[in-house]
Design a protein that fits this description.
- The structure is a single chain.
- The chain is mainly alpha-helical and 383 residues long.
- 54% of the residues lie in helices and 3% in strands.
- Strands 1-2 form a two-stranded antiparallel sheet.
- The termini are far apart.
Length: 383
Amino acid sequence: MSQQYQIPGTPRVTSPSPTPSESGENAGTYFAPITRSAAKRATSPSAIAEEHDADSDLEKRARTRSRSPKAAALRRRPSGLAPMTPKSGIDASKQKADGTAVNGVANGHLSPAAAASYYWREFSRSPSPLGLIPIHRHWRSFIHRHEIPRKALHVSIGFFTLHLYSRGTQTDAIHPWLLGALVPIVSVEFLRHRIPSFNRFYIQVLGALMRESEVNERYNGVIWYLLGAWVSLRFFPKDVGTMSVLLLSWCDTAASTIGRMYGRHTPRIRRNKSLAGSAAAALVGVATAGLFYGIMVPKYFGYEEGFMFHGILALPEPAKQALGLVNKGSGIIGGWLALGVMSLWSGLVASASEVVDVWDLDDNLTIPVLSSIGLWGFLKVFG
């Protein structure tokens, strides 16, 4: 029993053997292993004798680096990149003659809000409200994200236009009212941007129809809507002006709605414009032309004298001669075929006018004007 639980003896610890160098230098003595810190101190170089020359290379090398953030930023050099200029940090090969950076080249600094031309468009499409309009915080999805009240007003203008057409109202009686409505609306917008208390009251009343980009900087889109409709109805024929207002009312809304829902799954055409939104604008434009020229016009007053489209499309005389179409009725289409061609062209014009950006102007102004020009030019050649 005593042998089974016998206490083991104390283990024998053998110290490490000295290195050959230590054995040769100290044959009769033994030293423990030297630690790394002790070895570093033993092998440190002797102090450099200072010279009185302030510009010597040794003194420059012995100076400690500055801890200034600016100096540290200047010392950084991204490996593999072109050398940077010491002041701006911009690639020297991508600078203009006056020292400014080429557009689109990052310079390592955050640009101010006013420097980005599309800042307010991105700002207004923020997925969550920033608190500038109180009602947007309470109705995040209904008002802020999907803009249902704003789009409902947008679409209703098209139905109101068809109502006026069905009553026989002429464009000469409409565009003076549009111009008259611009005066008080522009005056109110001018005042609210300069009187903060009035601006707060304005936001409380009409905040559901506004975007956050229109709170302090941009003017309300109603101004551009009325101005675009006035230009189309004032300077273009009745059917072209009416169609342009309808394309603005319905195609722009369709492009915005479908683009926000499915635009991330399709290629992007340009900033904030996707293939899904452009396709939706084109399809709605085709349907709008079919509704107006195929249903409303025949049902009420027919192709009036002031119309440019009378249900017939024809090739111009130079094209007929070039194609050898010498007969009297050749090169002319009518009926449903002409309506289909006119509808397709209206859809293309609506999609193109919704995509194109003219000097960063509001699309409520550019869509009706460009649509009027596109329809007028097409019918001027083939109508």
